[in-house]
Amino acid sequence: MQNLALSKIGVRVINPELPITIDGASFANLILDQHLHSENLRLAVALLKALNPHDSSEELSALQGNLHGLSMAAAGVTGELLRVASAQGLIFELIESSPLH
How many CB atoms are located within 10 Å of the residue 38 CB? Predict the structure, then answer.
């Protein structure tokens, strides 16, 4: 399935069997970036739904549908990254975030 997704954007991995090593902090940052991407897409879908509650705009409905699909795919990638991190022994803990200024 991953090769199919990559081929849709015109990228083909020549040597997918090559193992890749990445340090835990970099992998955690990758997961964070992917999570933020997923959340931004989810919020965009919610905003479009609020702006177009009765699907009165065909264009906004189409955009909402497309963003929803991207949101679901991004959330799936986040889940897979977390699964791989857990399988590799990377441990996460929830920390209280500081308020934004």
Answer: 20
Secondary structure of 24-66 in HEC code, one letter for each residue: HHHHHHHHHHHHHHHHHHHHHHHHHHHHCCCCCCHHHHHHHHH
Instruction: Spell out the per-residue pLDDT of the chain, length 101, in tens.
Output: 445 554 556 667 788 888 888 899 999 999 999 999 999 999 999 999 999 999 999 999 999 999 999 999 999 999 999 998 999 898 887 677 666 55
Contact between 67 and 49 under an 8 Å Cβ cutoff? The reply is: no
Which 8-state DSSP code applies to residue 97?
A: P
Q: How far apart are CA 25 and CA 90, in angstroms?
A: 9
CB neighbour class for 61 (10 Å; exposed up to 12, middle 13-18, buried from 19): middle
- Tell which phi-psi region holds residue 55, choosing left (phi > 0), alpha (psi between -120 and 50) or beta: left
Sort 77 into a burial class: Cβ within 10 Å, 0-12 / 13-18 / 19+: middle
